[in-house]
Amino acid sequence: MTETAPRPTLEAVAARAGVSRATVSRVVNGGDGVREPLVERVRKAVEELGYVPNQAARSLVTRRHDAIAVVVAEPETRVFADPFFALQLRGISKELTAHDNQLVLLLTEGRDDHARVGRYLAGGHVDGALVFSLHLDDPLPGLIRRAGVPTVFGGRPGWSGDHRGVVYVDSDNRGGARDAVRHLAGLGRSRIAHITGALDQTSAVDRLDGYRDVMVDADPQLIVEGDFTPTGGERAMRELLARCPDLDAVFAANDLTAAGALRVLRAAGRRVPDDVAVVGFDDMLPVAEQTDPALTTVRQDIEEMGRLMARLLLRGVDRRTVDRRSGEQVGGAPSSVVLPTTLVRRASA
């Protein structure tokens, strides 16, 4: 076993800087009332000794843990296979890192996991929670509300109950879907099918509504439910070809669904875009630029959504911080944000 050197203590920093332990504590924990020359001496001593504050002790002073829970309401097999989640987590991680906060990733696969996450959040381990990929029957919103932690959701809330005070970040899913279908109609396509996402999620519902906004009198046979996966896209595309062999365009609820649909169309001898034009949603470059042909799709800034979620949450956490002199909360209440989308034209439509 390798012996480790003892960790520098607050007292050691105070001795090196020639100040009291209380002064070091105020500087390390961001307190006020210390003259700048003393602050510089403490910081220099901290650097020279390699002092790292004890988080548990620091939390008693600051009432902050500098840790944020990221709760993804999906099993790990889905999270680590879908680039959407990687992009959103990257945006969250960048923002939290910039503010010296730790990311704690929590995944849910069943009811036992929901209860575990609820207990963890209620246990006071983190300052707040970022939650996304919720399903309509998900108990997480209720568990999180009872835990009493500041929370920002990814996606428009769709669960039952009072949504007042709920903060979320979303993209204009309905408007983006309208743009996709209008583009296909502008190409002269009239039998435009739609492969939806999982309809227990608001993003899929909004994209279906956008499709229907344009295809007001669409044949119901042209709509098949998918699940945002390539396998779901393949299954739905086979069903559409069996139902409506004369279809001439497909709007897929996301790029992974579109990739699955393209494989089935190729296997069926349908040329894209000559016979069937295809548009996706997301513009995840690892998918959209590597399909054959390259995918026309609706772009949403997934990484920026993650950054905004983290930014809004940290603002909400700061709002709960009490100014020791005035006794009042500081900061303003964050508001929800809906980001615009844009159509990116490539070879598939």
Write a concise synopsis of the structure shown.
The chain has 349 residues and is of the alpha/beta class.
Shape: elongated
Structural class: alpha/beta
Helical element count?
Answer: 14
> Which series of helices and strands comes N to C?
HHHHEHHEHEHEEHEHEHEHEHEHEE
How many angstroms separate the termini? Answer: 63 Å
Give the fraction of residues assigned to helices: 40-55%
Strand content: 15-25%
Can you summarize the main beta sheet?
A: 6 strands, parallel
Strand segment count: 12
Q: Please give the order of strands in the largest beta sheet.
A: 2-1-3-4-5-11
Q: What is the residue-mean pLDDT, rounded to a whole number?
A: 87
Low-pLDDT sequence parts = 322-331
* Radius of gyration, whole Å: 25 Å
Describe this structure in words.
- The chain is 44% helix and 15% strand.
- By secondary structure, the protein is an alpha/beta fold.
- Strands 2-1-3-4-5-11 form a 6-stranded parallel beta sheet, sandwiched between helices.
